Amino acid sequence: MGADGADEILVGGVWRRGSGAEFASRSPLDGTVIARLHGADAADVDEAVRAGAAAAADPAWRDLPPHERARYLVRIADGIAGAAERLAALQTRDTGKSINETRALVASAQATFRYFAAALETMEDGLTPPRGPYLTMSVHEPIGVVGAITPWNSPIASDAQKIAPALAAGNAVVLKPAEWTPLVALALGRVIEEAGLPAGLLSVLPGPGGVTGDAIVRHPGVGKVSFTGGTATGRAIGAVAAEKIMPVSLELGGKSPTIVFPDADLERTIAGLLFGVFSSSGQSCVAGSRLFVHSAVYRRVVDELVARAGALRVGPGADPATQVAPLVTHAHRDRVAGMVERARGEGARVLCGGRAPEGAAFAAGAYYLPTVLEGLPNGSATCQEEIFGPVLAVLPFEDEDDLIAQANDSVYGLACGIWTRDYRRAWRVARRIDAGTVWINTYKQFSISTPFGGMKASGIGREKGREGILAYARQKSVYWDLAEAPLPWAS
Ligand code: NAD
């Protein structure tokens, strides 16, 4: 719903009802409908892309110097700051996430716009060493219209991570938020409009992935797609991109290993393990969901972990004391429960959780208890597939080489955590693990100035960092003649 409660989406600078089918966004607390929306259909996508292309080509935007483009990003950051509490509360309502987490996500979105404004002011095109009588240079130009497709698990932060660098690079953006959580993206659209961004540069098009998302990816006017979501979807988008010969960046799933060596500081380790897998109720691409513990400390670590997992505060997202909020939808909760049932079938021992919490307070919500499983080999489906819920599989190990082989025996390569006091071992293992991000004696920490992305089936491309702007630019080389005489061949 728009700010006024109307069923409106942002199509090429105009707030109006989408032409696609109606869908509902439901509360994870009790399944009630929070908003009904008409999604964008292919005609809406076409309208948004055409308006985006026109706005990006308009000299008012095309010829704006970078430092003036940066001012829009700063104004957007200020707008997010001004609306922070409202945006966080809206996101908690729509996703079920704890209010502490959604406040952090809103703060991250704000910081992302500020960071890319600053980065944009310092971007430089380069002169290259000339190897003849000419000036040679390498310059970056906007792509035109960028498609940004985001998942439901941290909406406003992932939306900002695509919109900010894409606008910084001088593009227009067509954003498609996930159908389960469209509201905060629409609210962000309002904030960006109020910041004065020229109309048409941003469209926000909720709708089903197979309709709205697919139309964005296939549209000939879209010159790049930046996608965050599941690996199967990313693979399908990558196939269309290959047909179009279109650049694509894919931030996909993970099954990230965390590794505990016997010399680890166990108090810090347990705190990091719990946060790494159970915060966001496990609905995190980087969740440390495969835990390898050295056999010398295995029982101690697992017993302590289980005791503390059982004491985590499960409750509604709006309660600031809540650590484990409901999952995003009842259907997703049921899917997670089904994967734990499959783990039981594979022979897993359920050390804690393995069910929804009992009691009237939890009856209507999409809750699931923090769950620790042991007794499964790394090759089991439970240890290989992303569950995307509060479920941890623990495995003992003895030998470092065997550990690395097991940790890397996964189609994914998103993140890894290493817990040890031995700095040489930390370095050695960090360099041998297939992961886009490695945390040493910490976990799930992020910085907008540090690139993020996956290896193997966890994705292609990197977001964040100063280079993040260049991911939304086309590179061009220019040779500029300085010779006194014409080219000799035809003379
Ligand atoms: P998803 O792949 O189902 O959906 C993601 C987005 O893609 C949604 O907006 C969806 O509508 C859209 N989509 C679906 N089918 C499409 C199609 N054919 N064409 C175009 N768009 C389409 O993922 P999800 O369930 O929303 O999110 C969870 C997944 O996202 C997990 O696998 C998680 O690991 C991953 N994720 C990755 C990162 C990362 O940075 N690596 C971050 C967050 C989430």
From TrEMBL:
Transmembrane segments: none annotated. It comes from Actinomadura montaniterrae. It holds the Pfam family Aldedh. The keyword Oxidoreductase applies. It comes from the Bacteria. Residues 15-478 form the Aldehyde dehydrogenase domain. InterPro entries: Ald_DH/histidinol_DH (IPR016161), Ald_DH_C (IPR016163), Ald_DH_CS_CYS (IPR016160), Ald_DH_CS_GLU (IPR029510), Ald_DH_N (IPR016162), Aldehyde_DH_dom (IPR015590). This is Aldehyde dehydrogenase. GO terms for molecular function: oxidoreductase activity, acting on the aldehyde or oxo group of donors, NAD or NADP as acceptor. PANTHER family: ALDEHYDE DEHYDROGENASE-RELATED (PTHR11699). The active site is at residue 251. The keyword Transmembrane helix does not apply. Keywords: Oxidoreductase. CDD domains: ALDH_DhaS. Belongs to the aldehyde dehydrogenase family. Gene3D superfamilies: Aldehyde Dehydrogenase, Chain A, domain 1, Aldehyde Dehydrogenase, Chain A, domain 2.
